[in-house]
Amino acid sequence: MKATNGMKATNGMPATDLALDSVTLTAGARHLVKDVTLTARPGETIGLVGPNGSGKSSLLRAVYRVLRPDTGQVLVDGTNAWSLPVRQLARTVAAVVQEPGADVDLTVREVVAMGRTPHKRLLDGDTPEDAELIESALRSADATHLAARPFDRLSGGERQRVLIARALAQQPSLLVLDEPTNHLDIRHRLAILGTLRRLPATVLVALHDLNLAAYYCDRLYVLHDGEITASGPPAEVLTAPLLARVYGVTAEVAIHPRTGAPQVTFVPGEPLPDRDGGPGVSPHRV
Hints:
Elements: E1 18-27, E2 30-40, E3 45-49, H1 56-63, E4 71-76, E5 79-80, H2 86-92, E6 93-96, H3 108-113, H4 128-140, H5 156-169, E7 174-178, H6 186-198, E8 202-206, H7 210-216, E9 219-224, E10 227-232, H8 234-237, H9 240-247, E11 251-255, E12 262-266
Parallel strand pairs: 3-8, 3-9, 6-7, 7-8
Antiparallel strand pairs: 1-2, 1-4, 4-5, 9-10, 11-12
Helix pairs in contact: 4-5
GO molecular function: ATP binding; ATP hydrolysis activity
Keywords: ATP-binding, Nucleotide-binding, Transport
Protein name: ABC transporter ATP-binding protein
């Protein structure tokens, strides 16, 4: 677990304390997220896991202030995020989303440099410190060799690394990421999550890969049908009965002898365990 006492983000700001207090989000008559309470202590890496449509992305959008909660609050260092000035929020929170928007006619370096915008006044140019931070972010995302290339000519994985570099250049004290390993090969998945893990910032990340979540996250929150169904350290949360109930699959969970983290192995076609871990009904073939 990352140290949290006295932890400072690289911009000199303390790592952020995040709390979601009974947050409910709706779309018409449908609940996207219902009565979710979640905490991320300064410097922690917190993972959101759950099947497609469980509410992970919606919950993250409430944190980086795209979806306003119908009820409940998102508290950033004890202050309602929706009451913070836009500029202050941009200096505190950086987001890496699944759908970054339309193509832009910029080079990779220019895209990453956009991360410095919240720290500048209108018409300010880049300082030597900005240039150093941009280069550091490019190195951390293994994107230095892409710096002069047009962003809209990159592959999906290359774009993802550049957007992560932009977020790193922003130097947030709270980093929110929605499936940041999408499109990445195995080497870059491990490298990016390792970089996030070492940040002094608080990190809230949605992940589909349970083994990566188990290794890199301090605590997990499991979302199912818009509600938190389990939370805690990965070794306590990732159990065969929970995976059967939430994902509808049979799995074996063991502690990896070298990493010490839970390792999930899926067993297609096996009967689902019941809630107590015994044999149960046969699943659909997967």
